[in-house]
Automatic annotation (TrEMBL):
<dbReference type="GO" id="GO:0051015">
    <property type="term" value="F:actin filament binding"/>
</dbReference>
<feature type="domain" description="FH2">
    <location>
        <begin position="100"/>
        <end position="490"/>
    </location>
</feature>
<dbReference type="GO" id="GO:0005829">
    <property type="term" value="C:cytosol"/>
</dbReference>
<dbReference type="InterPro" id="IPR015425">
    <property type="entry name" value="FH2_Formin"/>
</dbReference>
<protein>
    <submittedName>
        <fullName>FMNL3 protein</fullName>
    </submittedName>
</protein>
<feature type="region of interest" description="Disordered">
    <location>
        <begin position="73"/>
        <end position="95"/>
    </location>
</feature>
<dbReference type="GO" id="GO:0008360">
    <property type="term" value="P:regulation of cell shape"/>
</dbReference>
<dbReference type="InterPro" id="IPR043592">
    <property type="entry name" value="FMNL_animal"/>
</dbReference>
<dbReference type="Pfam" id="PF02181">
    <property type="entry name" value="FH2"/>
</dbReference>
<dbReference type="GO" id="GO:0016477">
    <property type="term" value="P:cell migration"/>
</dbReference>
<feature type="region of interest" description="Disordered">
    <location>
        <begin position="470"/>
        <end position="505"/>
    </location>
</feature>
<dbReference type="GO" id="GO:0030866">
    <property type="term" value="P:cortical actin cytoskeleton organization"/>
</dbReference>
<dbReference type="InterPro" id="IPR042201">
    <property type="entry name" value="FH2_Formin_sf"/>
</dbReference>
<feature type="compositionally biased region" description="Pro residues">
    <location>
        <begin position="73"/>
        <end position="93"/>
    </location>
</feature>
<feature type="compositionally biased region" description="Basic and acidic residues">
    <location>
        <begin position="472"/>
        <end position="497"/>
    </location>
</feature>
<comment type="similarity">
    <text>Belongs to the formin homology family.</text>
</comment>
Amino acid sequence: MTSTQVQTLRRVIKEKDAAFQRHTNLEKKLQELEQQGSIRVRKQADGDIDILPIGGGEGLELVGVVPAEVPTPAPELLPPPPPPPPPPPPPLPSATAIRIKKPIKTKFRLPVFNWTALKPNQINGTVFNEIDDERILEELDLDRFEELFKTKAQGPVVDLSCTKGKVTQKPINKVTLLEANRSKNLAITLRKAGKNTEEICKAIHTFDLKALPIDFIECLMRFLPTEAEVKLLRQYERDRKPLEDLAEEDRFMLHFSKIERLTQRMSIITFVGNFEDNLNMLTPQLNAIIAASASVKSSQKMKRMLEIILALGNYMNSSKRGSVYGFKLQSLDLLLDTKSTDRKLTLLHYIAIIVKEKYQEIATFWHELHFVDKAAAVSLENVLLDVKELGRGMELIRRECSLHDHSVLKNFVTNNESRLAKLQRDAKTAEEAFNAVVTFFGENPKTTPPSVFFPVFVRFIKAYKDAEEENEQRKKQEAAMREKMLAQEAKQNDAKVQRNNKRQQQHDLIAELRRRQAKEHRPVYEGKDGTIEDIITGKPVGLVALFLGGGSGGPGASCDFGSRVRGG
């Protein structure tokens, strides 16, 4: 092998070892949380690990599903056997080949889904390299999708904060070397401590936190004597002026400034007093990052959801932008901005509908995303800085113990050194887990902190739940509208039937009356000269003939006609 290949091989092996170490640290953290009773780990048949929370999850311990994969050196980078004969040099690592996506043709013009696409060379090693959006398109009713989304145009603490207040007027004969405002605020602080100068200085010298509350120490840190103040106080002593003439605050500052290594002692006392609170504050934040990172990275349901979104997005953009291989997570926020033709439905609402109809198993995908809301509120950068500060504080105490025999500090180091080491390991695990999940989703860990990465999932979960609820409400409203229309139609039909029945009854009554009248007044036709017969047969007969009877009947014929026509 050439020297370049040897260097490449060493670099790859080093990276694999580092990845293996990170995975080992994560497994140790899982085992630790399982022993604490915060989670339960269950191995699946496919080698993955189910990590289930125990209880309500308020303790904020690690939960999620972490693939049980141990990185192994790539086969193509193994060194060749020794000569003779010398084997050919091993091939250098190459990026995974990207499958060319088929062009998509739609029947209608669709709105553009303005996502931020990943470049093909950014896909390798991300979640998008493991999903198949083209398979999703084969399973969906795309005609329905197009019909819905086609465009209209076709074509509380102790208050020792040194607030301003009124101080009793000093006697005129008292000497003040400190600046007036500083002296006044120091007087307020000392009164709230309730201890004299000797007691305060002794407690600081012996690191006695039982005698002085940490809030008072933190406030007193603001009054560490400056170089100019020390010079004034020393000059006052050298001049052999009476100390009794100094104001009470100046006398305190004089004794305060004489404490050996004052700044270091005050820093140590502050560190020791705040250590427990800092530990309790940082540990849940680190656990939240670890839990959220592990669960998001291993969520198979979230991966399927991204697969569906990628498929529909490519289908919508096929005629204008072409298919892409992945997208930035911030694009999930745009699902609510892409609306159907009638503006009543968004793309997210449609996704919720098809998930319920065809992919019911991923409808509750958020159950796999643990503590993303808590992780979203964590500033990992600040947490890591705080952990480093704790490390520097512990180192300061070790140096102090090596110089002087302080039983209080030695006991503190003995009791808390291992706790700090564990916190530092958790910090490293959290950083590695977060970097891994951000990279897995095609983002840059340097420009995408937890406060940007995890809120995307928080917003998406909320928007998806809202879309599901709105779909159900719309479904109920449509059902109620259908029932109302059917009721109105039935009412109209009933009214029509009633009118028809009434009309039929009237017709039947008229017919019955006619039948009775015809039966009671049946005529007997006995006309002269054929006049009655002509009337019956429809032949024209003059009115005169009708009433005069024609011929020689004369006027009396009408009477005769009337008498003959009556039915017997």
